[in-house]
Amino acid sequence: MVKIQIRLNRRGGSHGGKGFTDSTSDLTPNIAGELGITVVPLNVHFGSETYRDGVDLTTEDFYRRLSQCKTLPTTSAPAPGTFAEVYDKLAKQTNEILTITISSKLSATYKAAVDGKEMSKSKVRIEVIDSLSAIVGLGLIVISAAKAARAGASLDDVIDVVYSSMNRVDFRMAFDTLEYLRRGGRIGTARAFLGSALKVNPILIIRDGITEGVTRVRTRAKAIDYLCDFVTSFPDVEDVAIEDAATPDEAKILAERLYSRFSKDRIYWMKISPVIGTHVGPHVLGVGVLPK
Q1: Taking the alpha carbons of 48, 52, 55, 58 in that order, is the dihedral positive or negative?
Q2: pLDDT, average across residues 179-193
Q3: Distance CA 119, CA 205 (A)
């Protein structure tokens, strides 16, 4: 689902950076704009109707429609040709492109990115990395890569940053239900958390590229406590990210608590995109950490 393309070694010899990612990185327009990251939408399908994620369908409109529909929408990754077109466009500005995708165990996007590389008519160097992550975890990997590129790092150095971030990034997502994950086929080993007679909030992660359950808490308040304690358990971090789908008040509560520990400029606010929302539902709250 997600790729980032870091533009390096601008023609003329100087270094520069430009990120290219799709909408499932959950980066807001402000974050993407600040870091020079171009966001390319995936597709959401309501029956025969197709919408470009965040372009033809806003996040607010999507969750409103999701709550009213009887049949879950479906999603699709960019076609290989879309990747090839972007590669060719960027090749007019750069000699090197780095692509980072969502876990290949969750999406066909990694294969599409590789196939798009083969279809590209450009002669520039193109590298593709499977992040084995998604959502807020992938977002933080993308941010770290974009920062390195903007600072003038070479392509090989940015690749090192990506792998380092992949090894360090950690995140937790609090759900009110796993039904969306189950119906969308993305539940992974968290399936063990299904079937409880109790109203609980499962806490999930993505480990080795697949969804995995961590624990369950009884109330939403305890879920927020858990997420806060998770972040503050790290002695020092490069960046922190908070994201929600349709519960901004909960995200604000979590942010206010984290501001007492971390400066505001180190905390990114993200929004669960319609494509991701299709698989997780409207009441997901998450945090991500990139430890030092």
Answers
A1: positive
A2: 65
A3: 34
The number of C-alpha atoms within 13 Å of 213 and in the hemisphere containing its C-beta is 19
Q: At what angle do helices 248-259 and 220-232 cross, to 10 degrees?
A: 40
Question: At a CB cut-off of 8 Å and minimum separation 6, what does 8 contact?
Answer: 15, 16, 17, 94, 95, 96, 98, 149, 153, 154, 155, 158
The string over 85-98, giving b where at least 16 C-beta atoms fall within 10 Å of a residue's C-beta and e elsewhere, is: bbbeebbeebebbb
The structural domains of the chain, with segments of one domain joined by +, span: 8-62+72-167, 170-291
Q: Which tens digit of pLDDT belongs to each residue from 212-235?
A: 889 989 899 999 999 999 999 999
pLDDT for 128-144, tens place per residue? Answer: 999 999 999 999 999 99
- Tell me the three state secondary structure of residue 183: helix
Mean pLDDT, residues 162-188: 84
Residue range 170-291, CATH number: 3.30.1180.10
The fold of the 8-62+72-167 domain, in CATH, is Rossmann fold (3.40.50)
Nearest CA to 264 out of 292, 245, 287, 240 is that of 240
Question: Exposed/middle/buried for 232, CB within 10 Å: 0-12, 13-18, 19+?
Answer: middle
Average pLDDT over residues 23-34: 86
pLDDT in tens, 197-207: 457 889 999 98
Give the pLDDT band of residue 37 (cuts 50, 70, 90).
confident
Terminal CA-CA length for the chain: 27
Alpha carbon 56 to its chain centroid, in Å, reads 20
The answer to whether 210 and 189 are in contact (CB under 8 A) is yes
